[in-house]
Amino acid sequence: MSDDLFDIDIPQKVVDKIRMYYGDYPEFNELLEGNEVSDEKIRLAIELYVDHFNAMPPELTVKYGVDNFPSKLVLFKGVIIQLLTMRGLIESRNFLNFRDDNVSIQVKDKAQDYQQWIQMLVQSHREEAMNIKIAENAKSAYDFHASPDGVARSYF
């Protein structure tokens, strides 16, 4: 994988599976016409999450992409967190609360719902991602390395 954030190959079938996991289909979006999230935003969320996973400690020698990510569930949850964050920012920005006499009206009052989903997912996701990184780190520590004299040696 290149250092260029936008150089990750993301097959359409991965985008489709993320959409399926997210449940973003017109028949489920009763208050919307069509999908809530474009393929382009799903790709961006994937790129951002894969970059985040690779950068979070503990660092690994392997840099993961969509094609070799160690856990589909962790990838999907991380991408959903990114999608909810993107949508939550929009909801927060467009929130409107006004009052006229004794009538109070709130428009786009969904930001808190998005924040609750994000918080719930982040708690379980953080532990799952950390467990994967620790396991990968331990596995690489037990790998054999060639010595200068050509003999394979284990450091343990």
Describe the model:
- It is a single chain.
- The chain is mostly helical and 156 residues long.
- It has one domain (12-135).
- It is built from 4 helices and 4 strands, in the order αααββαββ.
- The strands form 2 sheets. A two-stranded antiparallel ribbon has the order 1-2.
- Strand 3 (144-146) and strand 4 form a beta hairpin.
- Helix 2 (39-55) crosses helix 3 and helix 3 runs antiparallel to helix 4 (111-141).
- It is elongated and about 85 Å long.
- The two termini are 30 Å apart.
- The mean pLDDT is 80.
Write the layout of secondary structure elements.
Elements (H helix, E strand, L loop, with lengths): L11 H11 L16 H17 L16 H22 L2 E5 L2 E5 L3 H31 L2 E3 L5 E3 L2
Helix pairs in contact: 2-3, 3-4
Specify the number of helices. 4
Q: Could you report the average pLDDT, rounded to the nearest whole number?
A: 80
Which word captures the global form?
A: elongated
H/E topology pattern:
HHHEEHEE
The low-pLDDT segments are none
Task: Work out the number of β strands.
Answer: 4
- Order of strands across the biggest sheet? 1-2
Task: Tell me the quaternary state.
Answer: single chain
Largest sheet: 2 strands, antiparallel
**Helix/strand structural class:** mainly alpha
How far is it from the N-terminal to the C-terminal residue, by CA?
30 Å
Percentage beta strand: 5-15%
Percent of residues in helices comes to: 40-55%
Number of domains: 1
Write down the Rg.
21 Å
